[in-house]
Amino acid sequence: MSLEHLYRQRFAGSDVLAARALQRFPGGATHDGRYADPFPLFMERASGPYKWDVDDNRMIDYWCGHGALLLGHGHPVIVTAIERQAPVSTHLGASHRLELEWADLIAELIPAAERVRFTASGSEATTLALRIARAATGKTTLIRFAGHFHGWHDALAPGADPDDPNRGVLPETLASLIILPADLDQVEATLAARNDVAAVILEPTGASYGSIPLPADFLPGLRDITNRYGVLLIADEVVTGFRVAPGGACARAGIQPDLVCLAKIVAGGLPGGALAGRADLLDLLAHDEHGPRGRIRQQGTFNANPLSAAAGIAMLREVATGKPGAIAAQRGEMLVQMLNDLFDAKGLRGWTAFGDGSIFHLFVDPATDLVPGEIPRNLPLATLKRGGDAQILRRLRMALHLNGVDLMRGRSGFVSAVHSEADIRATVAAVEASIEMVINEE
Length: 442
Prior knowledge:
Elements: H1 3-10, H2 12-24, E1 43-47, E2 50-53, E3 58-61, H3 76-85, H4 97-109, E4 115-119, H5 122-137, E5 141-145, H6 171-175, E6 177-180, H7 184-193, E7 197-202, H8 207-210, E8 212-213, H9 218-229, E9 232-236, H10 248-253, E10 259-263, E11 273-277, H11 279-282, H12 287-294, H13 306-320, H14 323-345, E12 351-356, E13 359-364, H15 381-386, H16 390-402, E14 405-406, E15 412-414, H17 421-441
Parallel strand pairs: 3-14, 5-6, 5-7, 7-9, 9-10
Antiparallel strand pairs: 1-2, 2-3, 4-11, 10-11, 12-13, 13-15
Helix pairs in contact: 1-2, 1-16, 3-13, 4-13, 7-9, 14-17, 16-17
C-alpha cells in the first residue's frame, strides 16, 4: 500500500475537511506554510508538546504555534493569565496598566528597547520599522538579504523566496530594495557606492530562522559596517526574540541594533507584536515631539490588546528566569545529535540535522555530498530554502505524520520547554520508522 493511500486512510477526517476548505480558502489553506500535498491535517486540540487531529491521532508537535509557544500548548501559567483577564476585558479601546507592565518586561530583556510600540503581528512590526527608518534618515532604499523572511508585505516580501515572481508588487517598491547575499564585503561595497540606503534588515541567525545560518562573525561585522556608514540596523527577532536567549540573538552576540522587531513569544502565543529600539527613532511616533505634520502616524485596533498583554506578561516572566529557553535548547540539541547519529548509523549521505538551540532543521538530498551533522552550504538558494529534495521531503512528511510527529513543512521545528527526553527519543524512533517507509516507497 502506498504512503499516500495510508495517509488518506489514517487521516480520512482531514481529507474530508480539506475538500471543504478548497471551496472556501484559496488553495484550501489559511497560511502558505500550512499548505500540504495531498492535504493538510486538521487539528482539534493540544496539550503540552502534543496535539490531536480530527481523527484523534496524537502528534508530537514541533510547530509550537509557529514558534510562539515556548512553554508548549495550554501551559497553566498562560491559561491562568488569560482566564483572569478575559472576564475583565478583551478590548478596552484605551490605555491600560497591563501595556506598561508588558513593555517594562520587554525593556528589561531586550537591551536595545529604549522605547516600545505594540503591533498586532510581526509583519506589522517590520512595516513600522521601515517607515521609521525612512523618516529618520530621509533616505528611501533598504538592504535585505536573500532568503531572509520579514513578513508578507510589499516592502519586504521580495527576496524571501527565490521562486516568488513578486506579482502585485509595484516596480517602484522593487526599485527601493537591494537584495544581497549574506556577504559583508558586498554590504560594505554597496554602502560605499550609494548614499540613499536608510537601513539594513536581517534575521540575526540567518535565513528562515537559521535554515541558512550566518557565520559567527556576521552580526558584529554588520553592526560595525552600518555604524561606519551611518545606516540603521534592523533586527527581525520575530522568531528568535526570547527563544535563543532571553534578550534575543543580538543580545547573545553582544551587539545592539537600532530597531528590533518582535512577535510570537512576546504575546504568549496570542496575536501580537512589537517594535522596540532607540528612543530618538521611536519618538517619531510621539504626538508632543513633532506635531501633526512632523510625526509618523500608526494605528492598530489590536495594538497592546489586554488579552495578549496578559498572556505576554505571563510568558515573559517565565522567560526572564532563563529556565524555559535553557530546557528547550538542551532538548533541541539532544534531538539534533540523536538524528545525526541515526542518519550516520544508516549510512545516509545527504541527510543532516542542524540548528540553534531549540530551533532545528533537516536537509535531505542524497544527490549532495553531505555527511550527518554538516550544515548545507554553497548550494542554490532555492534548494536550501526547501530543505533539499522536494519529493523525498513530501514522502517524509507523510511518513512522519503516520508515525506521530508533526514538523513544520516536514523539515523544521521548534522545541518547547515541555518536550521531555522521552518525547525526543520517541521522535527519533518515529524518524527511523519514517525513513524505512520513504525508502520502501522509492
